[in-house]
Amino acid sequence: MKTTMPRAAARAAIAAAAIAPMVLAAPTLASAAPSADARSAGETTAEVTFHNDRGTTATCGSILHFFGSPLSWFGLPPAVAVPPGGSASQQIPFITPGIHTLSWWCDVPGDQVYTGNEGPVPVGGISVAIVEGINQLTGN
């Protein structure tokens, strides 16, 4: 006796087999994206630390936006190499004390370019105190 699978069932099985690896891998890929955090490193300097959870070295950089305006300052060096599973830092010197925002990017070879924003980034004594006070009040 010969058994046959209906065409619709065969198509569904093939589609499920093709999609399953993407669906199962999606949470792993999303959690492994590079990230960055920024903090004050003195009265006129910010420090950005990049974290790379990918399997290859990433090239990362950042731009600090003064008080959320279009006026910007690049980090020095302009880009840093972040080893797989590691971290690297970048300094942004000679900036006006205040509360700023930061845009960052990480280019992972063979993968996409990851981007993000950080803020508020307080630089200088009173700015740090203001942001920490607001974060305590709001529970952030």
UniProtKB/TrEMBL annotation:
Protein name: Secreted protein
Domain of life, per lineage: Bacteria
Keywords from the UniProt entry: Signal
Source organism per UniProt: Hoyosella altamirensis
Signal sequence coordinates: 1-32
